[in-house]
Specification:
Blueprint: E1 10-12, E2 15-17, E3 35-40, E4 45-54, E5 57-65, H1 75-81, E6 95-100, E7 103-108, H2 111-118
Antiparallel strand pairs: 1-2, 3-4, 3-7, 4-5, 5-6
Helix pairs in contact: 1-2
């Protein structure tokens, strides 16, 4: 009988990977606020801590615009798995607070996705 090692996670170039089917674990709350990715009608896709959401207007704290990503096909995949081609992503610096109008979808962010997105260098021109 061949014994195989059981691996819970592996880190490659600062990105943590877990076995498929290991389950969703939400990102840690900060000051009781949930980390989310929001898609808006005209302002693009943002990640941040949801301070408030009234109808289609939301306020995010410690927010970052996810202007262009590679290595995830949809916002849903991005919120669950993050990106696997971080060198191709274009995520500007974080801002302390942003108010977004015309929010059309809200996605909770997993701990793995947060770690992946946080590892993307700030994009500047």
């Amino acid at each position: 009988m061949i014994k195989t090692a059981e691996i819970d996670e592996i880190v490659i170039k600062g990105v943590t990977y877990v076995p498929k089917g290991s389950g969703y674990a939400p990102a840690r709350l900060v000051n009781g606020l949930k980390l989310v990715i929001l898609r808006t009608k005209n302002a693009g896709v943002w990640i941040g801590y949801l301070k408030s959401k009234i109808e289609q207007t939301a306020t995010l704290l410690n927010a970052r615009n996810l202007w262009y990503w590679s290595g995830a096909t949809t916002v849903s995949q991005l919120s669950e798995e993050g990106v696997n081609k971080r060198e191709s992503c274009k995520f500007p610096q974080e801002v302390p607070e942003v108010e977004l109008e015309e929010v059309i979808s809200t996605h909770p962010v997993s701990a793995i996705a947060k770690q992946s997105i946080d590892s993307v260098p700030v994009w500047r021109v």
